[in-house]
Amino acid sequence: MVEPQRLLVICLGNICRSPMAEGALRARLREAGLSQVEVDSAGTGDWHVGHPPDSRAIATARRHGVDIGGLRARQLSARDFAYFDWLLCADHANLRDVQALAPRAGGGRSALFMEWAGLAGPIPDPYTGDESHFEQVWVQVDAAARAAVARLRAD
Ligand code: 4NP
């Protein structure tokens, strides 16, 4: 594994998808003994800065044995491009926003989180949905987190 590895998961509000992805990644990396991989999350928007994850995201993660209640939302900053190796986006709009902010040269690379992990598709925004949408997000981010462990081991 190439070290250090620093991963930043990004969505719009940093209260639903990316904190769930952060929690899943931390859990699967810890289980795999890859705790040296740094993981964080951020939002492209600033509406929820300082807020804990959405209560439905916390409840969904908890049902799967992962506590994300201590996370607090923050907004993506220019410094993140220098610090993180990968900026992993939930959907195409997030990826476009990240690419618009990226420095012209150097800095972390950006991708869709699912595709970076070798899986298909964006992660749809569950914010205006119901519990089943949050469950579907968990299924996606946990599959990507497990695939990420394999990718990082192979790197
Ligand atoms: P997230 O979901 O990007 O997965 O955190 C959202 C949370 C809040 C809003 C939109 C999406 N919002 O418009 O406030």
Q: What key attributes describe this structure?
A:
single chain, 155 residues, alpha/beta, 6 helices, binds 4-nitrophenyl phosphate
Mean pLDDT: 96
Strand order of the largest sheet: 2-1-3-4
**What amount of the residues lies in strands?**
5-15%
Low-confidence stretches: none
Secondary structure tally: strands: 4
Distance between the termini: 5 Å
* The CATH C-level class name: Alpha Beta
Name of the CATH architecture: 3-Layer(aba) Sandwich
Number of domains: 1
Structural class: alpha/beta
The distinct bound ligands, ions and cofactors come out as:
4-nitrophenyl phosphate
The CATH H-level homologous superfamily: Response regulator
Please give a structural write-up.
By secondary structure, the protein is α/β, with parallel strands linked by helices. The chain has a single domain, classed as Response regulator (Rossmann fold), CATH 3.40.50.2300. It is 44% helix and 13% strand. The protein contains six helices and four strands; from the N terminus they run E-H-E-H-H-E-H-E-H-H. Strands 2-1-3-4 form a four-stranded parallel sheet, with helices on both faces. The longest helix has 24 residues. The protein starts with 5 loop residues before the first strand and ends with a helix. 4-nitrophenyl phosphate binds next to loops.
